[in-house]
Amino acid sequence: MSDPSDFFALDPAIHYLNHAYLAPQLKSSIAAAQQQLAHMGNPHQMDASIFFDPANKVRSRFAHIIGSKEPDRVALIPSASYGLANAARQVRPVKGSNLVLLQGQFPSNVYIWQRVARDFECELRWVEAPEFGPQMGEKWNQALLAAVDSKTAVVAVPPLFWSDGIRFDLVALRQRTKEVGAYFVLDGSQALGALPIDVDQLQPDALVSAAYKFLCGPYGTALAWYGPNYDGAEPMEDNWLAHEGASDFQNLVKYNPNYAAVGQRFSSGQHPAFLQLSMLNEALKQVGVWGAAKVQAHATTLLEPFIEKFMAIGCGLLPTDQRCAHLFGLRLPKGVSLSQVKKQLEAKGVFVSLRGDSMRVSLYLYNQPQDLQALLSCLKSTL
Q1: What would the pLDDT profile of 201-244 be if each residue is shown by its tens digit?
Q2: Fewer Cβ neighbours under 10 Å: the N or C end of the chain?
Q3: pLDDT tens across 113-140, in order?
Q4: What is 4-26+291-382's CATH number, 3.90.1150.10, 3.40.710.10, 3.30.450.40, 3.30.460.80?
Q5: CA distances (Å), 269 to each of 50, 83, 265, 315, in order?
Q6: Would you call 16 exposed, middle or buried from its count of C-beta atoms within 10 A (0-12, 13-18, 19+)?
Q7: CB of 7 within 8 A of CB of 28?
């Protein structure tokens, strides 16, 4: 199978432009789950290595995807919010400092910082989006950089905005956070697997991501990478797997106070969840083979011929140099009901998401020109 669409079991009668909502599971992941279920029916076939070997494979495969040479920095977690909570736990900002967030960013990367701001009496510094227009992305990046000052303790943002794909200048942000001594925490859930990010070059303090989007894993799995600022830190929970000596089942009650390697200590209890991990391993294996650059290039090639066509029927779309190709937002003409349009699209087998003022379209390697053509034709007849 050389065509990426052959790796998925999507209904050929529908046009799935909603990969950022829930990724369809790979055929190989489904097969791995079926095989794992058979083993779970006979647990005598499962020796103690099942608690460690698959998790270590996941660490190595995720480290490869994000450009890290240190898989021990990877934690296996149930959600991005869990990984962000571990990241926030280590932050002890002084009273009167500020935490920089984007207005409207995903709630999992907001609620935990609201708690930090409340507990340590800090300012939550919201960077609002400019009005939609040709310079929206550029202006928002400028405002974000300007919001970081000598009192900034944390900058917690995504690589791209989750509703319309606006890209943020991570290199400039990292440089600025280093200058002021602030933590740089990224929620890469909408990016990893589709937008190249190299942590060894970028050096964020923490990078977390749900796995059920462009990493193609099952819902309920997520991953995090923690940089040197988290070396020696205490994890949010003290499960038995977070401590050294966990593989010695006979002597587990000889309690070891020492934590495992930096990333492993932040992994959640029961993170070796056998069924989910078997699926995630297959997903990361294939995602690593394809590479994020291939996803971005495919989406760019797919979208390019349709940009002027979407704009010709009254849809607003940000310039190519300010947004991603794999995830973008279409702004419909004023007065048009987004929810009604979505219903009409679904009736014709076209699936997208509504996020804020945008109709969010998210592409993957299985998408073909006929998928965007179906979206364009439906919007034409509707608008």
Answers
A1: 999 999 999 999 999 999 999 999 999 999 999 999 999 999 99
A2: N
A3: 999 999 999 999 999 999 999 999 999 9
A4: 3.90.1150.10
A5: 15, 13, 10, 46
A6: buried
A7: yes
